[in-house]
Amino acid sequence: MPRRLVLVLGDQLDRQSAAFDGFDRSRDQVWMAEVAEESTHVWTHKARIAVFLSAMRHFRAALVAEGIDVDSTELSTDTPPAGPSERSPGTLGEALLASLARARAAGQSPDVLIVVEPGEWRVRMALEAAALQAGLPLEIRTDRHFFSSRDDFAEHARGRKQLRLEYFYRGLRERHGILLDDGEPAGGQWNFDAENRGAFPKSGPTRGPGRLPAPIRFTPDAITREVITLVNTRFASHPGSLDTFDWPVTPDEARAALDDFLAHRLASFGKYQDAIWTGEPWLYHSRLAQAMNMKLLDPRDVVASAERMWRAGRAPLEATEGFIRQVLGWREYVRGVYWHFMPEYEQRNTLGADRPLPSFYWTAETEMNCLKDALAQTLRHGYAHHIQRLMVTGLFAMLLGVKPQEVHRWYLAVYVDAVEWVELPNTLGMSQFADGGVMASKPYCASGAYIDRMSNACGGCRFNPKIATGADACPFTTLYWDFLARHEQLLKKNPRMAMQLKNLSRKDASELRAIRRQAEGLREATP
Q1: In order of start, what are the domains of the chain with their CATH numbers?
Q2: Which of 33, 327, 334, 389 has the most CB atoms in a 10 Å sphere around its CB?
Q3: pTM of this prediction?
Q4: CA distance 470 to 485
């Protein structure tokens, strides 16, 4: 019987993983490694580093408690990286080769390496290269954490001229019997998106007689406190703060976070999922993506639990469907897109954007209230909800003309839930339209009027979202009209842009020239 070494990566912390199928405690071993490259290949937020390291150490402790032999490598506080341009010598491939060399010297070399499908192309290539160099077979097993496999998505995509989430999502609903009554969609329709676009009243978000309930917090235990010290020392120059770190780092905590969301926020999630309120980072959102993306939480449990809430009359159908679509629909769909089109997908740039990312994305030092709030929240917590990412930080970058690969690297660096399979298509495709319409049927472009309608940010801002030129013009509004004008020929091919281009056509040549001058001035003044 071959001796197997099971490789467990930081986003595969699942004891029910296919990697453990047939695991024999008497012969087999688990390998886990903390390496600096995973925090420095993008200049990673302290909270993202801490959540991965803490969850990995908790998972390793649970395996050891089971009597499983774990070969692990830990980062120390020695030799902190000097800056974002440094390439750390500690890579996953190097760490694996070093472990294999030690095992060979001790006469305990494995016969085969086993890993579940990695979540990043870069990591898969590194492990394959290390296995080849070591002369060992690498068995990559299907990741059954997901509702659909990469082969399932390839079959769905075969022969289609265009990929669209809605059809993929409906197929998964039917295949898994989710939100169906007698084979038909519950409530008589597949999608309740139109009912899920509410903005908060002027008084702000409330629920019943009290304020919006804060999500459950998880006080750092001894393992997490040790990790926080490590990160604050070794990665001191990285962005973000760990002063409010309270993310779930074990399966029990992840389940508690799910239960808390279902009990206190699911019912209002649907209506207000697109709303923004300054100073309120969590609102009715679940904060579960991080736990699911690290495999601390099974998406099947998440979806089934949400459906039970609706069937028990504890959440409206539109909220439940909207939440399930995020998990069963978008999450599965973006993974399919990622693996179907990589590695060339990462280099797509349909709009030809070439500007650097503004420096204030790392400092939140901007006069634009909506951006200042979203960026400050991101740097504080490593979190922003999907509309802040799509229609504030992402929208400004697209309108400004930032190179999409720079936007991608920033998103991958700053959000605790960022794993490349989910982050890259959402950023390049959905947010920046760099893939030309694979992910989204049109660019998600809007003026400051959208932000004014969906948030309270414009009320205290020195810029006026209604005007495009002049000293008080909102940069979003200026850049929006300039974006439409610059890309008019490309956008004319898209029927979903007809109304916006019709509005553009109402502007005379002198107004468009003034908008172009103001937009050019904004670009020159943006550091």
Answers
A1: 4-141 (3.40.50.620), 150-215+265-341 (1.25.40.80), 359-525 (1.10.579.10)
A2: 33
A3: 0.94
A4: 18
- 3-class DSSP state for residue 185? strand
Whether cis (ω within 30° of 0) applies to the bond prior to 343 is yes
> Alpha-carbon distance 193 to 514, whole Å?
37
Which residue is it, tokens 């079959």?
155
244-288 per-position pLDDT tens digit:
999 999 999 999 999 999 999 999 999 999 999 999 999 999 999
DSSP 469: S
> Per residue in 33-47, pLDDT tens?
999 999 999 999 999
Q: Which DSSP symbol is given to 384?
A: -
Q: Is the pLDDT of residue 371 over 70?
A: yes
Contact yes or no for 418/38 (Cβ under 8 A): no
Residue type, 95: A
Token representation of residue 442: 């049109």
Place of tokens 């500690």: 90
The residue ranges of DSSP E strands in 190-315, in sequence order, are 206-207, 210-211
Give pLDDT, residue 208. Answer: 44
| Residues 6+ away with beta carbon under 8 Å from 525 | none
Residue 1: pLDDT over 70: no
Residue 355 per-residue DSSP state: B
Inter-residue contact 85 to 384 (CB < 8 Å): no
Non-local CB neighbours of 38 within 8 Å, separated by 6+ positions? 10, 44, 52, 92
The Cα–Cα gap between 197 and 284 comes to 13
